[in-house]
Request: fold
Amino acid sequence: MKKSYNQKKESKLKSWKEIPIGGVIEEAGNSINYETGSWRTFRPVIIPEKCIGCMLCYLYCPESTILLEKDEKFVYRVKGFDLEHCKGCGICANVCPVKAIEMKVESDFKNDDKDKEKTDKTKIEKN
Ligand code: SF4
Ligand code: SF4
Reply:
């Protein structure tokens, strides 16, 4: 029998017995396994025409959530952010020398996310 979207999401959560004592992080880089994007209050938004591909945001982002793409001149530029893991710290916007990243209030995107959730749910149910 296929699992529903909520059942799949719940089955990913750890019980209190599985969480290390004191919340100690035993394995480096394990944040990829958690949806830390839900902590966000502000969301980074790229203004593509301003990005000069200096990569400062990529270097400084503590979550490695900057997504890149190569342009026609083989220069890497920011195409977006991994929003499942971006915590909205704003470091990327602060270090950008040309102000190509704006931090916007997360609640402004509430309706966009509802649409995305519906799409994701449909995808999961199809699998
Ligand atoms: S807001 Fe913080 S976590 Fe998100 S992309 Fe920018 S630097 Fe990374
Ligand atoms: S710091 Fe700004 S200009 Fe540099 S790659 Fe990031 S968004 Fe583009």
Observations:
- The helical segments are 5-12, 56-60, 91-95, 110-126.
- The chain has a mean pLDDT of 83.
- Strands lie at 42-46, 66-70, 76-81, 101-105.
